[in-house]
Design goal:
The structure holds 2 protein chains of 2 kinds. By secondary structure, chain A is α/β, with parallel strands linked by helices. Chain A has one domain: Rossmann fold, CATH 3.40.50.300. Chain A contains 8 helices and 10 strands. Chain A has a 6-stranded mixed sheet, with helices on both faces. Chain A has a 4-stranded antiparallel sheet with strand order 2-1-4-5, with helices on one face. Classes of the chains: A alpha/beta, B mainly alpha.
């Protein structure tokens, strides 16, 4: 059965000034993939995600999202994005969990429209999915780092996205919170069929959960099977060197 | 009450109530977006507007509003050019506004007393025309904040996320800066140009100490500002004090009281040993 393509990157070239990050690089992401984009700092992981989100435009090549060319895509409600900066929001911001998630739910409403009961039900459903229903009236700043990250995730889920982009979601979290967040992402992937694209440098935590892994090497997107990594059967010299597999 | 028998005090209290509502409505968003300096910048530009109005014989509140609107457009323009150093936009505009104000004040000889009343606020000099302008501005600000409450909250919490969600962030930021400009321009009549930004910031700071949600922080900041303005005006009337300074000192007193009570409550909870 042919799998549905949700993102297609075709022969793109992208540079920051004179520094080339990607050259004639291609990648296809299929529905219900859980894809990890791994690599050291500065390798171009966040750049790749931003290209997939349309926040950056390639100098050459084409990107398609949900079968539409990026320049004509406007159904951003179907796309959730948890940026790196989401983990470092102002913890003294005087807002409850419900208000923060509600703001995301109301983003698609017009200026004068109020949140309706069905909008608030979506908020409650999103909070339930991340296991924070009982903390909905807590101030966001009072939560732990892991709980705050789940609030950020609930903000994305409230719009019932088809695609979820996560940029280093584990940064700043203790091991217990990381494990809790990984379990939640697995649940969203397996039970809800969400397509997840996650940038991370945490190989050991990621490799157990994802079905695909890519990294950027010599300006190309290099894919490797996470099962090979789990079985320690990776043979590509760059990957073995980068992952310290000897 | 004796104070309400005087028409000028009736006008001053009415103006004070309008200012006490719109300043914290703007101020809470300025504080959360770390744009507190914009109030000061726009008040310096408003001073130039006041001086221009006095020199030309035009209603100074009106000219202050016009100059403040122009200044807010300059700030937004410069912020796009200095996106990495956004505070430069406010510093440059403040310098320009102050420089222009000094020149215009020197050109409007004999109007020093009038300029001082705008610098420090004046209970006695709120005219019916001023009140009409303030009421109109007050209505615009209140309706705008109600209409834009959710996107403003979103932008204050996560500006990048707001952009990705499709909120027209640049347009809303520009409109909000314009609202800030007109709020500053009309509020100087009561609080004075030097202290307008304080009335925007201090009630918001006080509310953030005790609010349990964003909505209650908005309500508390408005309540705090109204108490400060009305108390300040009453005190300034009976003790012949500068109204702007009295209002701000009262609001500072409230902030310090809230902080002290909060610390006391936390200390009691820490020392409490259940039997």
């Amino acid at each position: 059965m042919q799998r549905e393509k949700v993102i297609e990157i075709k022969d793109i070239t992208f540079s920051y000034g004179r520094k080339t990050i990607l050259e004639n690089a291609s990648l296809t992401v299929y529905r219900s993939d859980f894809l990890a984009v791994v690599g050291p700092n500065g390798s171009g992981k966040s750049t790749l995600i931003k290209l997939m989100l349309g926040l950056l435009r390639p100098q050459r090549g084409k990107i398609f999202i949900l079968n539409k060319p990026m320049e004509y895509f406007n159904q951003w409600k179907k796309v959730g994005y948890l940026s790196q900066r989401a983990a470092f929001f102002n913890s003294h911001f005087p807002a409850t969990v419900r208000e923060v998630v509600g703001a995301q739910a109301s983003a698609h409403l017009g200026f004068l429209k109020r949140m309706r009961p069905k909008d608030w039900r979506k908020v409650e459903k999103a909070l339930d999915m991340v296991g924070l229903s009982e903390l909905s009236n807590y101030m966001v700043g009072r939560l732990s780092g892991g709980q705050q990250q789940k609030v950020m995730l609930a903000r994305m889920l409230v719009a019932e996205p088809e695609l979820l982009f996560l940029d280093e979601p584990m940064v700043g979290l203790d091991p217990e919170s990381q494990e809790s967040l990984y379990m939640l992402l697995e649940k969203l992937h397996q039970e809800h069929g969400l397509t997840i694209i996650m940038v991370t440098h945490d190989i050991s935590g990621t490799v157990k959960r994802v079905n695909r892994m890519v990294c950027i090497h010599q300006n190309k997107i290099l894919e490797h099977d996470p099962q090979l990594y789990r079985d320690k059967k990776i043979t590509h010299s760059y990957i073995t060197q980068f992952y310290h597999l000897h | 009450m004796e104070i309400l028998e005087y028409q000028f005090m009736q006008r001053a209290l009415t103006a004070g109530i309008i200012v006490g509502i719109i300043c914290p409505l703007i101020g809470i968003f300025l504080v959360l977006r770390r744009l507190s300096l914009i109030g000061d910048t726009l008040s310096h530009i408003s001073l130039a507007g006041v001086a221009a109005g006095l020199a030309a014989g035009i209603n100074a509140t009106l000219t202050a509003v016009v100059f403040a609107l122009g200044g807010s457009l300059v700030i937004e323009y410069l912020r796009r050019h200095y996106s990495k150093y956004a505070e430069l936009a406010t510093a440059i505009t403040m310098s320009g506004g102050m420089g222009l104000a000094v020149i215009l004040i020197s050109l409007g000889r004999g109007n020093t007393a009038s300029v001082l009343s705008y610098l420090f606020g004046s209970v006695a000099s709120v005219t019916k025309t001023d009140l009409f302008i303030m009421a109109a501005v007050g209505l615009i600000v209140m309706v705008s904040i109600i209409a834009l409450y959710r996107p403003l909250f979103f932008i204050a919490f996560d500006e990048e996320g707001a952009r990705i969600a499709g909120i027209p962030v640049n347009k809303i930021n520009l409109y909000f800066t314009l609202l800030t400009a007109i709020t500053v321009a009309v509020s100087m009549r009561i609080v004075g140009i030097l202290l307008v930004s304080s009335l925007m910031i201090i009630p918001a700071a006080a509310s953030m100490q005790i609010a349990k949600s964003f909505k209650t922080s908005v309500y508390i900041s408005v309540a705090a500002a109204l108490i400060s303005v009305i108390s300040g005006l009453v005190l300034s009337f009976y003790f012949s004090l500068a109204p702007g300074g009295t209002i701000i000192m009262f609001s500072l007193f409230m902030l310090l009281l809230i902080i002290s009570l909060k610390k006391l409550s936390a200390a009691r909870k820490a020392n409490f040993v259940p039997k």
